[in-house]
Write a structure and sequence with these properties.
Length: about 190
Amino acid sequence: MKRIIFLMFFLSASLIAQNMTNNVGRSLFADHKASQIGDAVTILIVEASSAVNGAETSTSRNSKLGVSGGYSNDIVQLPSGKSLGVTGATSSGFKGTGSTSTKGSVQAKLSAKIIEIDDNGNLIIEGTRNIMINKEEQIIKVSGTIRPQDIGPDNTIYSYNISDAIISYKGEGSVSTVQGPGWFTKFLHWLF
């Protein structure tokens, strides 16, 4: 009798068996990686940029014109021993140098949500983080496309693995206002 009950239990369990890939999010032995619309993935923003550009130009131009000659007592009455001469010279030059240098660095950590899955299976993400401290608001926004295989086992991805990435970091408040020029200075810059 025990064998028949065991056989019936085994057959009923095999008839209602589930696909384990559908339950991977509930498994005790699998890491849950974001893969569906609405899932969250942690973005580790580690961006550093540096650019240097320099230019130097130098031009030069010289020209001289000279006329000299002797004299004859018949044509021009000059004191003896003197000569008649005309000389002229022009010169111009230009030298210019210029250089630009920029550096930037951003480090942050925020979560983004999968908002769409494209035809190739890539995940389109979007995330925003607002931080308010003493009436000073800092806003971090990230959007772009990631590959599911780039997501780490702890459900994180570095910002340099995001294609078509748009990362913005801005602040609003009294500190940001003080750092910018005043309205009169802006008006003068607009005029000149």
